[in-house]
Amino acid sequence: MAEAALSPRQIDQAGLCIGCGACAAGREAMAWDRFGQLKPAGAWTGQASESFARICPFSPAARDETEIADARFPDARLRDPRIGAYEAAYVGHVAENGFRAGGSSGGMTSWVAAELLRQGLVDGVAHVAPADPEQDGRFFAYRISRSEAEVQGGARSRYYPVELSDVLAEIRAVPGRYAVIGIPCFIKAVRLLQQEDPIIADRILFTLGLFCGHMKSARLVESFAWQLGAPMEEVRAVEYRLKNPDRPANWYTAHLTLADGSTRWQDWWHLADGDWGASFFQNSACDYCDDVVAETADISFGDAWLEPYSSDGRGTNVVIVRSPVIHRLVQHAISERRLDLTPVDQEFIVETQAAGLRHRREGLAYRLNIAPPPLPLRKRVQPGGQALPLRRKFVYHARRAIARWSHPVAAFAHRRHLPSLYVGWARVALHLYQAITYLRGPLGRVIAFAEFLTNRSRPVT
């Protein structure tokens, strides 16, 4: 593909900016937009350049995940078009030092980061940790940890906008060897930046990827506060997945800590926007992503959403290992019983992430067909989906509508101090989405009947 000059503003206006901050390192700070998403800020965002076009993970001029992985892991033992190149895959958990209890899942992400530090392979780990909303204006942010205790302090899932610009600037300024933890598009951005910046290439030695459904906006925290009866200005900390070994791992719990030390919590399924698949507060760029499992990372981690693992409240990871160096660390720890991991094949990994992969491959093909973005994306999925069942088409339309409208509705409710307006709208939207998805109620019956008629009218082949 020919080189093209693009600006951050063009990417943002096309709805393709994920807010990773790779382009902002060493420039002006990233800033919140009115929808609670982080975006590049300042006059420089209007300046088009070929170098920016090569490092933005959603740029049509950037290399795709397969190209990056082929260059990074040319000798990988195994390859699968759904999960990429890899050395081995596992299911299980950490068996030492409370990593499992301290994490949202099986504790593997924090364990690998800590092990890289313990073995002297890195001097620091860039990862997301809680921040002070009064001081920092946000609940979570990237930081660089240099000890096992600091790494463990950032454990657990964070469905909140974060960006890399500050830690990338620190990595440039402070010599050393670093690892970076991030969701697929953030790891891709780091890989693309490594090809443009020799200092980043020399100092970031390892990347640890997190399986991803989509990026939420900061408005999700405000929605929690509205629905839990907590004044937003009093909220000091948030947890999205409060672990309880006596409850299934997939029973998410929204948990807020207030300034007076009191807490408010609620199970996600009781929330108006508590169905993850409905895409409330989703970043628009996520509609055009085809990487679920962080295919460019040296190792990546997800939840084992299969029985009996999904019912185990202690948490269980699925792990895809791509770096031979990290694979040796993992194998050694298994032999020492510090890790309780069982080898699995690609079909097991795919089955644990079936919904996400369907949305990012089948769903992406359909979205590229019905709503192509204004820039010519470089995707590994081609437009299509004409032959999808009618219900699947309705599901993808419903998700797009919820993802699009949840932002302005919540912003309007915030501005007018009318939280009930957003919550009421969300309840109706969720009811319609679930009627379509699960064929519930009168709407579900209408769709089921229409699908039946459509199938009857198709010629037999």
Key phrases:
single chain, 461 residues, alpha+beta, 2 domains, 8-stranded mixed β-sheet, 3-stranded antiparallel β-sheet, 15 strands, 39% helix
How are the secondary structure elements laid out?
Elements: H1 8-13, E1 30-32, E2 38-40, H2 50-55, H3 65-72, E3 78-80, E4 84-86, E5 88-94, H4 99-102, H5 108-118, E6 124-130, H6 133-136, E7 140-145, H7 148-152, H8 165-173, E8 178-182, H9 184-196, H10 198-203, E9 204-210, H11 219-228, E10 235-239, E11 253-258, E12 263-267, E13 299-303, E14 317-321, H12 324-335, E15 339-343, H13 346-352, H14 354-360, H15 362-370, H16 390-416, H17 419-438, H18 441-457
Parallel strand pairs: 6-8, 8-9, 9-13
Antiparallel strand pairs: 1-2, 3-4, 5-14, 5-15, 6-7, 10-11, 11-12, 13-14
Helix pairs in contact: 14-15, 16-17, 17-18
What does this structure look like?
This protein is α+β, with helices and mostly antiparallel strands and 461 residues long. The chain has two domains: 8-216 and 282-358, no CATH class; 384-457. It contains 18 helices and 15 strands. It has helices at 8-13, 50-55, 65-72, 99-102, 108-118, 133-136, 148-152, 165-173, 184-196, 198-203, 219-228, 324-335, 346-352, 354-360, 362-370, 390-416, 419-438, 441-457; strands spanning 30-32, 38-40, 78-80, 84-86, 88-94, 124-130, 140-145, 178-182, 204-210, 235-239, 253-258, 263-267, 299-303, 317-321, 339-343. Strand 3 (78-80) and strand 4 form a beta hairpin. Helix 14 packs parallel to helix 15 and helix 17 packs parallel to helix 18. It is globular, with a radius of gyration of 22 Å. The model has no long low-confidence stretch (mean pLDDT 94).
